[in-house]
Amino acid sequence: MSKEVILEVKNLQTHFITKRGTSKAVDGIDFILHKGETLGIVGESGCGKSITSLSLLRLIPSPPGKIAGGEVLFKGRNLVELPESEMRKLRGNEISMIFQEPMTSLNPVLPVGEQIAEAIRLHQNLNKKEAAKKAVEMLRLVGIPSPEKRAKQEPFQLSGGMRQRVMIAMALSCNPEVLIADEPTTALDVTIQAQILRLMKELQERLGMGVILITHDLGVVAETCDKVAVMYAGNIVEHATTETLYETPLHPYTQGLLASLPKIDEDQEELYTIEGNVPSAFNMPPGCRFASRCPLATNLCREQKPELIEHESGSKVRCWVYSNKWREQEVVM
Amino acid sequence: MVNVQEQKVLLEVQNLKQYFSVKREKLLQPKLSVKAVDDISFTLCEGETLSIVGESGCGKSTTGRAILRLDEPTAGKVVYNGKNILDLSKKDLRTLRGELQVIFQDPFASLNPRQTIQQILSEAMSIQNSVQKELRKDRMRELMHLVGLPEEALSRHPHEFSGGQRQRIGIARALAVNPKLIICDEAVSALDVSIQAQILNLLKRLQRQLNLTFLFISHDLSVVRHISDRVMVMYLGKVVEIAPKHALFNQPTHPYTRALLSSIPVPNPKVQKERILLSGDVPSPINPPSGCRFHTRCPFATELCSSKEPETVEVQNGHHVACHYANDFFSA
């Protein structure tokens, strides 16, 4: 790939130290984000996808959280080691973030225009008047009708879709190079979700930023992402281009996840299910973390942890089935 | 597939209205109300699953609550087995609620955190007196087995269970009183996909085994397609389309239904959907648009739509659409 790398994550580990022990919420993940590209991180509740996104900007509450190791390289700098004052300059400026519930991220008693202007003035050398003007411009950019009027309104006067547009306007107001969107459309209705996804796509094409989209919705991923990382219990278990992932999912977890979705264009009598539950973060099995729920698991899987290996399709997968060891094991059996 | 014509009608909703009054902002302002459900009618046959879909605020949950009289409806009739539920006395209503049960979205919020599962189930049984005292223990074990939980679960508290297991407990509690009709209000919406699939399979299996009737309220159209026999689409307190599942998904006729179906992201990157993107938001139900309530967002709206409320037209057997141009859209 000839595209410019803007963000590189190497062996990132985030741990939570509690009375019950250490929970390895994110346990060594790697990925690369190129300019203008959308990377999806998918997984179920508790797999560590949101903790990953918070770790990138060092927003983990500490204590109990701690980035225990690894690197986050952004334009030659390692964000894990950056002093807090430098980090502050970067957040919301070069890397911004949107969260799921706009109502909890917006100040409920401040007009939205002022909130956007506040973010602009923090990072750009503009006076109050110029910043207010820029805020209105941003609201127009994200497709809010009569932005001059809306800028003076408070968050409760806006609908859910409108509030999410305000969040996007704020996140984009300083032309970030990376946008991290954590479940940006999960709280919205489908018709509004379609509007917001279209908007994000358009703005990305226009502004050329890299987007990390965190979601549990495999439909949203299929429609918006170029690459996908599937997470399970703190690890990336499969990393592939979107097309390859949906066409030939390799990891049994990914296969199970895709098979358990009810189809909109097909009749099924019974849905496929992944039996059992995710293992506790305090007590991870020594081998593959999916082994207890995996239909293919052998003793090898239960005893030794697989590495993320490259498959001939170009995808990366963390599963013994695709390794040489698996074949040797079959010969012995 | 359930054939509607041959089935016995279990529940009939006629001209149901549910208004909630809102506080006046100014002293002399006329009295305002939110028309959450505004004159809807439908029937539910024994053993079938009817789904209500729509976006937030369309009145789908309110309809479910009104049927059970969890909120007192403003007007209309809800006829269950020949009796109008809305005319029943408090005492008769309580007896009847044994046959009508509900499962909510968040099982943790609807289970008492200080009771064990055994206490939760036996409370339900004793209120409805559905099982003799001596037999309750056995019945509880049977229920655990039915919803796929171990018997030991009976002595534990709700917080000891995962989300999917809690939803199983919610289902067990509903079944404890031998209901005929279960209203599932977003029953799987809070669950992860792998767990959601388990619960959907469970609901389908229970329906077959116990001949249950489901009124399934959901915003997730893929789930609705999987579980329903018939589907009803609501918009701003009105029914816009009601049809057997296949007719609705293969020949959506109302412009809103079409837009809704086209908005669903498909988990297949090769499918490039032609998307009908609606502009704007859902209008306020306090002051809904005149005529057809969808005309402010409808790409095909004409003058007629803004002045006259559309009649419901039957475009095909069992397929009803509330649109002035239903027949044109249907053939198109």
TrEMBL record, chain A:
> From the UniProt record, which GO molecular function terms apply?
ATP binding; ATP hydrolysis activity
Q: Where in the cell is it found?
A: Cell membrane
The segment(s) forming the ABC transporter domain are 7-258
Q: Which UniProt keywords apply?
A: ATP-binding, Cell membrane, Membrane, Nucleotide-binding, Transport
Q: Which GO terms describe its cellular component?
A: plasma membrane
- Whether Magnesium counts among this entry's keywords is no
Q: Which CDD domains match?
A: ABC_NikE_OppD_transporters
Keyword Cell membrane part of the UniProt annotation? yes
Task: List GO BP terms, alphabetically.
Answer: peptide transport
Its membrane topology: Peripheral membrane protein
**Tell me, what's a Pfam family for it?**
oligo_HPY
What coarse category fits the chief subcellular location reported for this protein?
membrane
Q: Which family does it belong to?
A: Belongs to the ABC transporter superfamily.
PANTHER family (UniProt xref): DIPEPTIDE TRANSPORT ATP-BINDING PROTEIN DPPD (PTHR43297:SF2), OLIGOPEPTIDE TRANSPORT ATP-BINDING PROTEIN APPD (PTHR43297)
Q: Would you tell me the protein name for this molecule?
A: ABC transporter ATP-binding protein
TrEMBL record, chain B:
Family recorded in the similarity comment: Belongs to the ABC transporter superfamily.
Q: What is this protein called?
A: Dipeptide ABC transporter ATP-binding protein
**A matching Pfam family:** ABC_tran
Domain named ABC transporter: residues: 22-261
Q: Which GO terms describe its biological process?
A: peptide transport; transmembrane transport
- Record's keyword terms, sorted: ATP-binding, Nucleotide-binding, Transport
Which GO terms of the molecular function aspect are on file?
ATP binding; ATP hydrolysis activity
Instruction: Look up the domain of life of the source.
Output: Bacteria
Which SUPFAM superfamilies does this UniProt record tie to the protein? Answer: P-loop containing nucleoside triphosphate hydrolases
Record organism: Psychrobacillus soli
Please name the PROSITE patterns in this protein's record: ABC_TRANSPORTER_1, ABC_TRANSPORTER_2
